[in-house]
Structures are given as C-alpha cells and as structure tokens.
Specification:
globular, single chain, 19 helices, two-stranded antiparallel ribbon
Length: 462
C-alpha cells in the first residue's frame, strides 16, 4: 500500500482486530436493546477474531500449540453459529434494528474499505510456495496415462475437490492494513535462462489472473449483498450494513483471497439474488458446484424450495452448467486418464482422505473421527429437504449458511479456515427481515403474472 499512499504504514493484525471490533460495536450494537439476538450475533462475529489470530500467528511462527488453540476456537464459534442458523427459521419476530449510522455514512465507509481491499490485492503477491506450485503444474505435462492419472491424483489429495483448472491460479493475500512479507525471489546468476523467463512469464500471468479473480469475486459479494437488501429485503440500508460488516470482519482482512475461498461465496450470493429466476439461479449453483464441489450439498434444500414451482428450470440450469464444465475439462485434458482423474476431482468421487490438514491434523484427533462427522452432516443436509416444511427466502438463506458452515467440520483441507463460504449468507441471515411471504409458489407466480401483463402491454403497443 505504500506504493499508492505516501508514507503509509501497515497496521499489525492484532491492532486491526481491535479497531474493526470496536468499529462494529459502535456501528451495529443496539445499546437500547442489549439483550437482543442481533447483539448476540455481533458478539459471535467478533469472537471469530481470536481464533483467526491464533491460526495466522501459529502458522507464521511455526507454533503448533497456538495453531491448535486457534482451530479449536474457530470450531467452537462455528458450532454456535451452526446452531443459530438451524434455529433461525423458528424466530418469527424480527424487529427492524437499523445501524447506528446513516445510509450515506455506511456507503462511504463500505466504499473506502473496498478500495483499500482491492488496492491491497493489487499490490500484494502470493507466497513463494504457492507460486512455485502453480508454475510447476504449468510446466509439467505428462504424456503417458499412468503419469497423468498419478499427477491428477496427487493434486486431488493435496487440494481437495474442485475444478482442476482453477488449481493453476494462486491465492492472493487480502491483508488490508496488515503486514505481509514480500514474496518476490532473488535474481539468478545473470545468464539468460529461457526456461526461467518462461516460468517468470507464467508466474506473472497466474498473478494477474489471481488478482483479477479476487477483486471481481469480492466486488460481486459486496454488490450482491447490497442488491439483495434493496430487492428482497425492501431496505437498501440493511444490505449496505451487511456488506460493511463483511468488509470489517478480520477474516476478510487476514486470510488469502483465492478462487476456492471467495468465488464460491460470490456465486452463492448471486444465486440467492436470482432466486426468482430459477434457471439463472440453477446456472449459478451449477457453476458453484463445479468450482468447489461442496455446494452440491445444498441441492436437497434448494430442490425442496422449488418443489412446488420452478424445479424443472432450476435443475435444467444446474445440469446444463455442469455439462459445460465437464466439456471444458474434456477438451483441456491431455488424455482419457487425466480427464477421468479431473472429473473425479471436480465431483469429489473419492473416499474421505485420512491425511488431512488444519483441525483434523491436530495431535489429539484421529482422522477416522471425520467419518461420523461427515455422516451427521449428510443426514443434516437430507433433513433440510423436509424441514422446515414451508420454505421461504429466509429459510433458504439460513439453511444454506448452515450447510456451508457445516462443511467446515469435516473438510480435511481447510480445517475451519474457509469461512468465506458461509459468511455472506450468515450476515444476510442476521440482518434479514421477516420473509415468510417469499415462497416459490407465490413469488414465481407473481413473476409470471407480471410477465404476462408486460407481454400484453407490448402486444397492445404493437
């Protein structure tokens, strides 16, 4: 940031946690209703910060004990919010609790935070290890089927399920106001090395792609939350408030911004935004599934939501997008063996790995414990198809947040760190009004009626 702002000095991560927490309390804590659910939610969001700091410092300092405390802390707070999201459909009374700042002030603060976030994404560089891995993958092209399958299997085991082509894009740090080490490497021996030049060019291309994807994904999340507040909550101030909290959260400032972190969240936010257009919502959901696989567990909930009306259009959107992504994999693969391995990674066709990272790598954990947790998660996703019986936009939001939050408890590769998957949906649930009337049967019916009126008006004008 010093390249953009003269004499700019970055703030320590702990200091930023203090500042952002105090700012969130000043803006959103309801001092006139201390014992409200909104205040409890706000305290829970602030309580995520200590766990994040322990994970960041524990990893950077190589302190396993600090890292262990951080993961346990994140899982404890995540368990609280999981229960909160599952109980949200039972909360019928939802009084309007507006922020302690005007719309103009919130907008100015949100735009300022977003500009700092984007500037930090542009100026920061990926880690050396991350860049080396992505550039190395671009250089190695296996020719025999056995080597292709082995390389794809190794990538699958290291990175987890997801769209294989996105593994070539490194993660960009979003440490807004926070110190980050320079990831640039030193020069060589002075001799012209064409392979080194090629690798450096590939690195620059990967970095440019990563920065563009990170900026567009973060921008899509913020804009989507604001538009949801305006169109579906009938209160633009609520959408702006949710997006400002998202930008203030220490997670947005401390963790990496990779395609496996923020892109699925952006797609899910826009799927919610387009819920009155089942085909568009299905296309976005299919793209989210193809990118990161885990949104596939949302299908029972969303199918139940569209069961009475719009199910065919929603499923057609999901299936068509998955077919497009499968075709892209087929034409980009070097052979049938690589295509099969890439397809397995995209759809997560594998047994649960017993060599996890993050929370499940801690000394007191046995990897086999993930299997009953995974079984409980699958049972929860299936039960959301029948409960609650009457699904509206509010239950779609809260239960979708619960499903994406639940993935953190068994995900072997993130270990509780992929909070961007559920944070936007969680914040929209916290700030949402009563949405009991926003059910597919009535809302899609109203849309059809308006479309018929619009077509009739066009016929009369013609």
């Amino acid at each position: 940031m010093s390249e953009i702002l003269s004499h700019y000095h970055k703030v320590n991560p702990t200091t930023w946690v203090y500042l952002s927490s105090l700012l969130m309390i000043a803006l959103f804590f309801k001092f006139s209703r201390v014992w409200s659910v909104r205040n409890l939610d706000l305290i829970g969001l602030i309580m995520l910060a200590p766990g994040l700091l322990c994970v960041v410092y524990g990893r950077e300092l190589g302190q396993a004990a600090i890292l262990q405390v951080g993961y346990i802390w994140l899982f404890s707070v995540g368990g609280f919010f999981l229960l909160r999201m599952l109980l949200d459909p039972l909360m019928v009374r939802r009084p309007l609790l507006e922020p302690n700042l005007s719309v103009g002030g919130l907008t100015f603060l949100g735009i300022s935070l977003l500009i700092f976030l984007m500037a930090n994404v542009v100026t920061d560089k990926p880690d050396n290890e991350d860049l080396a891995a992505t550039s190395g993958k671009a250089q190695v092209v296996a020719t025999d089927p056995e080597s292709q399958e082995k390389a794809a299997a190794e990538r699958f085991a290291k990175q987890g399920p997801g769209f294989p082509l996105l593994s070539y894009i490194p993660s960009i740090s979003t440490r807004i106001f926070v110190d980050a080490s320079d990831a640039s490497s030193g020069a060589g021996s002075g001799q012209v090395d064409h392979r080194a030049i090629e690798v450096d060019t590939q690195k620059k291309a990967n970095m440019a792609t990563a920065r563009t994807m990170a900026i567009l994904s973060q921008l899509a999340i913020v804009i989507g939350m604001v538009v949801i507040g305006y169109r579906h909550f009938d209160n633009v101030k609520t959408g702006i408030a949710a997006s400002v909290v998202y930008l203030l959260l220490p997670y947005t400032a401390l963790m990496k911004s990779g395609v496996t972190h923020v892109l699925p969240a952006a797609l899910l936010v826009w799927a919610i935004l387009c819920y009155r257009r089942p085909t568009a919502s299905g296309v976005l959901m299919g793209l989210a599934i193809g990118v990161n696989y885990y949104p596939m567990f949302l299908l029972p909930l969303w199918i139940a939501f569209y069961w009475q009306r719009g199910l065919g259009r929603f499923l057609s959107g999901v299936v068509s997008m998955l077919l497009v992504l499968t075709a892209v994999l087929y034409f980009s693969s070097q052979g049938l063996a690589e295509f099969t391995a890439n397809l397995r990674q995209m759809y997560g066709f594998m047994w649960p790995t017993m060599e996890p990272v993050g929370f499940w790598k801690l000394s007191f954990n046995e990897p086999v414990y993930r299997i009953p947790v995974l079984a409980a998660f699958v049972a929860m996703c299936g039960s959301l198809a029948i409960w609650p019986a009457q699904k509206n936009l509010g239950t779609l939001l809260s239960c979708s947040a619960a499903v994406m939050l639940g993935t953190q408890f068994w995900n072997a590769h993130g270990g509780g760190e992929y909070m961007a998957w559920y944070l936007p949906l969680l914040l929209l649930t916290i700030f949402r009004p009563n949405l009991e009337d926003r059910v597919a049967l009535s809302v899609l019916g109203e849309w059809r009626a308006r479309r018929k009126i619009h077509l009739a008006a066009i016929d009369r004008a013609a």
